[in-house]
Structure to design on (789 residues):
């Protein structure tokens, strides 16, 4: 024991290392990493053993093997002699097709219902509200099964097909529509369409600059419509309507010609659109309600009329609130399109995680590829939306 | 204007006025009443030409949908019957409506699946246990809520396993999960999902906000991975990959595999819900807690989580609704849930009529609608109750 001189500087005794939060943190993390590594090692070991016992090959060699099964809807060439890799692309394209169409229609319907729910018209508001409450609270799978089994499959058979005005047929094998066949001269229309879009952009830039400088407005909407739609139509007429329709013909057992839209596809699209639109409607409603009334009143007091107020003041601010959850709904729709497997629409999950998995037995590889695709779609979409979001978000000092 | 004014002024001054109105002008008629039914209708339905058009369109829509629905579900419906012939069109019953006799006949199948008939009281007992637990947790002013949480998250699951699976030692014979089915399985999947996902989700959310990079990384990777893929692929993974990853002797049964998939999936979503609640707690709370000398776990347990979870209750209930709807997906990996029993019963030839499918789906839709709507009403009620504290 030494006596302490008053005023002498003493270093306090160092606490044991285990009380140092930094050391503890590192220790905890090391333990966590070791546990995860051990679990992964055990899983890989077990998997190797189980696969060897079941005599299942591993690796991605199956990609080049012949698939040997048929697919009812193919956007690219595919036959039973194509490879599993080809089948993968067919499935992926089918998924993307239904997701893209679903997003477009669900957005339109969702915005209508969402705005309708805020309408001053009592009946419109109540019906839109009822739609949202009912559709949101019934599982999507049940809705898909209903559309497929109870509605589309219950349609009359081929011989009693319902004729759609314009030369189409509707029966329990799907919808058969006339297929437009474009002749080479239609190229000019396509070219005119492209030129029209470019011209519309140039015109819009010019109109905006002039408005900034002189305050004079130019009719952007009508000129744009004319350039993008009217001008190609004129060219189309001038080149002598270079299109023919291949009409479907009803036979006794079959319908020949035309475009065939599978009932599975229609049921999936219907179900996804109606279900997702209910969620989008809520997103839209929340977005519009988030713009305080003072903004509208301020715009009126500046002399803006209701139309420009909505377009220039309310919508840009509402979009800021709407976009992030809207992206989530788009991703949900894409992920929900995997329910196709329940009604037999040949999407990625049905073809790949279903048929290919059953034929090859290579569960690990097939599921990993399927998950990677969805993960990639999710990450890319949310990345793009984050970019957009950064552009429109509030710029603060 | 000024010319006119000066001339009249001059005229007034020069001589007697030419004309002075003696009696008051008749008052304008009062504005149209805004009270009563006609006034209300004028304001809310027919205020402008656009509104009149909208009202007519939507009224037509309503007329197009609702009366046929009511006619099918109630007026033309067959309520009693023993065979499919009762539901078919007959001369005295020309239009086929919903075949509720079919639902009545199969209701036990829809509820219990293939659970042995003598043991079904055990399922009923499980339903009662669950109802008590849910009531205890959901009633915010219930007595002994802490005990309720222990009951809901520990006692009830153990008792349910003993009851449902059987425990020969206590005299309950074993009932294999392959015999479970219907509403029982749907409720088991949903209950396991919520009971497992809440603690897991809290851990993951805390991990995501942790100071330790490795813990944070693991949580973020897990959450974002699971949220980026559809539930079906998670279920496929659980049902075909899980058996590969464990020793062959374990061979987890089919329902357990699906339960693992659902629990992991809902944990990731729950984690994000809880994280939102954690973010709403001001940092001062945590600093104050460490100022009084509380460690990390005690801070979380005593200060942060009680506040965070309280404001997250509505979102937790909403994600429970989503989970409840998502339980239908286990049907795709071959589990006999409620929807699967409907599918099995509607394709069964003994009740094959043109309306059987629609009736089955309508029954399922009504049941799901009641459950999910009830839950979301509850969430909204809690939300207004919580908001009351912030009102001045």
């Amino acid at each position: 024991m030494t006596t302490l001189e008053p005023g002498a500087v003493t270093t306090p005794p160092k606490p044991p290392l285990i009380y140092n939060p930094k050391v503890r943190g590192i220790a905890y993390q090391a333990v966590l990493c070791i546990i995860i590594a051990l679990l992964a090692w055990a899983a890989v070991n077990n998997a190797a053993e189980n696969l060897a016992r079941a005599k299942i090959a591993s690796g991605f060699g199956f990609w080049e093997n012949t698939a040997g099964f048929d697919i009812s809807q193919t956007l690219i060439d595919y036959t039973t002699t194509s490879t599993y890799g080809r089948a993968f692309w067919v499935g992926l394209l089918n998924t993307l097709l239904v997701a893209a169409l679903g997003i477009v229609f669900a957005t339109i319907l969702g915005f209508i219902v969402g705005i309708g729910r805020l309408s001053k018209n009592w009946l419109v508001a109540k019906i839109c509200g009822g739609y949202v409450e009912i559709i949101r609270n019934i599982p999507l799978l049940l809705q898909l099964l209903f559309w497929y089994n109870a509605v589309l499959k219950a349609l009359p058979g081929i011989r009693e097909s319902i004729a759609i005005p314009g030369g189409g047929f509707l029966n329990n094998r799907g919808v058969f529509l006339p297929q437009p066949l474009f002749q080479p001269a239609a190229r000019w229309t396509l070219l005119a369409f492209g030129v029209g879009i470019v011209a519309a952009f140039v015109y819009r830039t010019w109109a905006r600059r002039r408005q900034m400088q002189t305050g004079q407005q130019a009719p952007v909407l009508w000129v744009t419509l004319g350039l993008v739609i009217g001008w190609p139509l004129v060219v189309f007429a001038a080149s002598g309507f270079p299109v023919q329709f291949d009409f479907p013909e009803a036979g006794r057992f079959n319908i020949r010609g035309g475009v065939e839209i599978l009932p599975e596809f229609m049921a999936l699209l219907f179900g996804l659109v109606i279900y997702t639109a209910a969620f989008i409607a809520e997103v839209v409603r929340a977005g519009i309600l988030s713009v305080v009334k003072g903004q509208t009143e301020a715009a009126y007091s500046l002399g803006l009329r209701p139309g420009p107020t909505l377009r220039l003041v309310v919508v840009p601010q509402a979009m800021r609130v709407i976009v992030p959850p809207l992206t989530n709904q788009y991703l949900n729709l894409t992920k929900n399109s995997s329910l196709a497997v329940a009604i037999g629409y040949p999407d990625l999950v049905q073809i790949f995680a279903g048929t290919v998995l059953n034929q090859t037995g290579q569960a690990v590889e097939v599921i990993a590829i399927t998950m990677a695709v969805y993960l990639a779609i999710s990450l890319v979409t949310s990345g793009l939306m984050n970019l957009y979001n950064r552009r429109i978000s509030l710029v603060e000092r | 204007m000024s010319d006119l004014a000066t001339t009249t002024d001059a005229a007034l001054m020069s001589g007697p006025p030419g004309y002075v109105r003696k009696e008051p002008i008749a008052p304008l008629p009062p504005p149209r009443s805004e009270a009563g039914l006609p006034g209300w209708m004028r304001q809310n339905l027919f205020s402008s030409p656009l509104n009149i058009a909208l009202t007519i369109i939507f009224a037509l829509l309503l007329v197009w949908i609702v009366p046929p629905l009511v006619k099918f579900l109630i007026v033309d419906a067959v309520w009693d019957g023993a065979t499919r012939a009762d539901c078919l069109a007959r001369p005295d019953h020309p239009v086929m409506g919903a075949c509720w006799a079919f639902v009545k006949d199969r209701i036990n199948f829809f509820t219990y699946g293939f659970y042995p008939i003598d043991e079904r009281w055990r399922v009923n007992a499980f339903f009662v246990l669950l109802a008590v637990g849910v009531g205890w947790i959901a009633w915010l002013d219930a007595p002994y809520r802490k005990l309720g949480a222990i009951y809901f998250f520990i006692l009830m699951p153990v008792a349910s396993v003993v009851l449902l699976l059987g425990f020969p030692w206590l005299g309950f014979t074993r009932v294999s999960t392959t015999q479970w089915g219907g509403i029982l399985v749907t409720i088991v999947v949903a209950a396991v999902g919520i009971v497992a996902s809440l603690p897991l989700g809290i851990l993951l959310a805390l991990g995501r906000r942790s100071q330790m990079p490795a813990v944070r990384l693991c949580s973020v990777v897990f959450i974002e991975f699971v949220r980026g893929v559809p539930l079906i692929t998670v279920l496929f993974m659980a049902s075909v990959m899980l058996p590969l990853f464990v020793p062959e002797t374990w061979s987890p049964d089919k329902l357990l595999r699906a339960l693992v998939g659902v629990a992991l999936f809902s944990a990731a979503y729950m984690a994000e819900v809880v994280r939102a609640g954690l973010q709403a707690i001001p940092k001062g709370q945590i600093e104050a807690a460490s100022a009084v000398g509380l460690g990390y776990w005690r801070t979380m347990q005593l200060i942060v989580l009680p506040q965070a979870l309280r404001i997250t209750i509505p979102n937790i209930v909403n994600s429970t609704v989503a989970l409840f709807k998502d339980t239908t997906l286990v049907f795709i990996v071959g589990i006999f849930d409620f929807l699967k029993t409907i599918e099995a019963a509607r394709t069964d030839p003994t009740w094959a009529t043109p309306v059987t499918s629609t009736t089955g789906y309508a029954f399922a839709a009504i049941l799901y609608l009641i459950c999910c709507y009830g839950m979301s009403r509850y969430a909204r009620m809690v939300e207004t109750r919580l908001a009351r504290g912030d009102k001045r």
Q: What stands out?
A: The radius of gyration of chain B is 32 Å. Chain B is about 70% helix and 0% strand.
